[in-house]
Amino acid sequence: MSTKQYPSLEDVIGNTPLVRLQRILGPELAARGNVLLGKLEGNNPAGSVKDRPAISMIRRAEERGEIKPGDTLIEATSGNTGIALAMAAAMRGYRMVLIMPEDLSIERAQTMKAFGAELILTPRSGGMEYARDLAEQMQRDGRGRVLDQFANEDNARIHYETTGPEIWRDTGGEVTHFISAMGTTGTITGTSRYLKEMNPAVRIVGAQPAEGSRIPGIRKWPEAYLPKIYRPEQVDELVQVSQSDAEDMARRLAREEGLFAGISAAGACWVALQLARTLSNATLVFVVCDRGDRYLSTGVFPA
Q1: CA-CA distance, 61 to 181, in Å (whole number)?
Q2: Are 204 and 231 in contact (CB under 8 A)?
Q3: Facing residues of 264 across strands?
Q4: 292: burial class by Cβ within 10 Å (0-12, 13-18, 19+)?
Q5: Are residues 79 and 111 in contact, defined by beta-carbon separation less than 8 angstroms?
Q6: Could you tell me which residue ranges the Tryptophan synthase beta chain-like PALP domain spans (predicted)?
Q7: What is the pTM of this model?
């Protein structure tokens, strides 16, 4: 019998590549000594940055004795967290119920179902706020346990433990700016905490949707629904990105860089590019949250 220790699927979450973009920055900005780097979270097993908090929330709830295999887990999600939780639940033996607005992309819904998750679709008009309220009501009715990515410290904690250290390591401590789309705010909150501890001068920039824009994965929450894990004092600047700019950048990344990224990732890249135009000798890192193939049915990419 072989004594070799092979990794499990859980073991290969994280340690995603950090790659230099070669053309989007342009020769003028590159000549100033600027470097634009994308962290390829689509390389995680379920295809997004949300693999990290999904396994973190389930594993740590188990460690605290709050859940056990066979239990029902409930979560309100607009997409990537749901896919990641569906995968993690399948890996660790849970029934997963996901609640989300009905306008999610077909690819996302099919992927969640492939992992065995049950879907409850809510009216588009209610947005994620309605989905979150329904999840809490189901928990009060005893129909399962809500992991609550919006208030669960294990969401931000895993980025403090993994994403931040990986960026610091892979840039040799040279990162000057970290740019992230803001949804649950777990990525920006946990990563910023680590990077600021290593170097308080690192600038943390959040990408938010401009008024009237609907960008999957990027949200500007009403005050009553602002994620409890969010730490505004750890974010130096918020930059608004329009839906058209994010979608155009997604197409440019694919055509000019060969980087097939999702729309929220493209929004973060657009923000990073605006920053680079005002900087010299900067190392800008943005999170490529997921892959573009999750958005083919939306019409963002040419048929």
Answers
A1: 26
A2: no
A3: none
A4: buried
A5: no
A6: 10-290
A7: 0.93
First and final CA of the chain: distance in angstroms?
A: 51
Taking the C-alpha atoms of residue 136 and residue 193, their distance in angstroms, rounded to an integer, is 29
Mode of pairing for the β-strands spanning 72-76 and 145-146 = parallel
Q: Which of 48, 78, 192, 264 is catalytic?
A: 264
pLDDT per position in the chain (303 positions), as tens? 667 889 999 999 999 999 999 999 999 999 999 999 999 999 999 999 999 999 999 999 999 999 999 999 999 987 899 999 999 999 999 999 999 888 777 788 889 999 999 999 999 888 888 998 999 999 999 999 999 998 999 999 999 999 999 999 999 999 999 999 998 899 999 999 999 999 999 999 999 999 888 888 788 887 777 889 999 999 999 999 999 999 999 999 999 999 999 999 999 999 999 999 999 999 999 999 999 998 888 889 987
Contact 89, 115 (CB under 8 A): yes
Catalytic residue among 50, 78, 105, 196: 50
- Closest C-alpha among 97, 93, 183 to residue 139: 97
Other C-beta atoms lying within 10 Å of the C-beta of residue 258 = 9
Q: What is the spatial distance between Cα 150 and Cα 232, in angstroms, rounded to a whole number? A: 14
Orientation of helix 243-252 relative to helix 263-276, angle to 10°: 90
* β pairing state of 18-20 and 35-40: antiparallel
CA distance 158 to 61: 13
For residue 264, indicate whether it is catalytic: yes
Q: Is 50 a catalytic residue?
A: yes
User: What does the alpha-carbon distance between residue 44 and residue 285 come to, in Å, rounded to a whole number?
Assistant: 18
